[in-house]
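Input/output pair, single chain:
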Amino acid sequence: MSGEAVLATSRLRSKRTEGGATGDLRFAGYAAIFDRVDRGGDVVRAGAFGPDAEGKLAAAGVPLLWQHGPASVIGVVESAREDARGLCVIGRVSRASAAGREAAAAIAQGVVDGLSFGYRVKAARGARPRELLALELVEVSVVTHPMQDLARVVAVEG
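Output:
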């Protein structure tokens, strides 16, 4: 894990910590890994989530979904930042909905630890692999089978 990811997860307990039955669950992990071809033949390049006009990633408030289901909003992405490894995110899962409770339980028990993201392509080149050079982050999802095998939850709290 990179130094920035260690800092981002320093307040979160290990991945296998049991969560409580009420309240929110927070996690840290990687929604994207740079320079690795995923199962769909895409490779995300460093800088693809690039800063906005103010120098920040436009990720705060991006919805957190369960299994990419648009009707299964389970929380919110609190922060996202690129580091040397990929797109490191901190997400908050609300247990207010049935999907949120299911996701929180699966994450806390270590049953589901995959992460993925939805995006719009701003710039890309090539094919097989297609290099993703500039992306608009639309959502982050907790998933059973991520397109990028290394995109995983690395720490859990709550």
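The domain at 3-157 is CATH 3.20.16.10 (Serine Protease, Human Cytomegalovirus Protease; Chain A). The chain has one domain: 3-157.
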